[in-house]
Amino acid sequence: MPLKAFRGPKVWLWRWRRNPLRRRADVVEAWVVLGAFLLTVLAGVLAGLAAAGAVEHGLARERSLRRPTVARVVTPLPAKSAAREDRAPAGERVWTEVRWTAVDGSSRTGRIRVRSGSAPGTPVTVWTDPRGRLVDRPTSASEAALRATLIGLLIGVSAAAVPCVAGLAVRGRLERRRMREWDTEWARLGPQWGRMV
Q1: Which of 18, 135, 154, 175 has minimal CB crowding within 10 Å?
Q2: Between residues 80 and 73, the one the model is more confident about
């Protein structure tokens, strides 16, 4: 509260108005603040949109290249003891070997997690790339949109922080310089005030 009383009421855009007390440093500071604000907004928006677009494009390409394939369980799963079945959660998934036929007609095998109790020959859906190798399930369109939005926001905020912090640093430096100039002026003119009283 005392600082506000010292400074007086806040007047918007005072650095842009004609005023005999306005100094060159005030005008420079006004331009620095305006430039930093514009760069912060532009950098954040452009970087965020570019990152979100790149992520969404990459995930859409991934969806178009991966395809579901029916595989069959090869390895028999070990029988569980009655005591373990009581503790095991329903629908527990365990690692096992499966076999599928790739696009080129070759037979492939790999390890995936399947529901416990799956017998050999049980069909399971796996995802493969164009070469027939096992890959993770691709993200759905809604998951891709959410991921792209979150990454775009993160990149946008990070990119916006650079000009924002730079603008604050320049403004702080201008403020310190202005305070030094006021100290110099006060040291020169302050003693004269004492003589007038």
Answers
A1: 18
A2: 73
Is-contact 69 127, C-beta < 8 A?
Answer: yes
Q: What are phi and psi of 90, to 5 degrees?
A: -65, 140
Q: Which region, left, alpha or beta, applies to residue 83 given φ > 0 means left and ψ of -120 to 50 means alpha?
A: alpha
pTM above 0.85, yes or no: no
DSSP 8-class letter at 9: S
- How far apart (Å, rounded) are the C-alpha atoms in residues 46 and 163? 13
As to burial, measured by CB atoms within 10 angstroms (0-12 exposed, 13-18 middle, 19+ buried), residue 98 is buried
How many CB atoms are closer than 10 A to CB 49? 13
Rounded-to-integer distance, Cα 149 and Cα 142, Å? 11
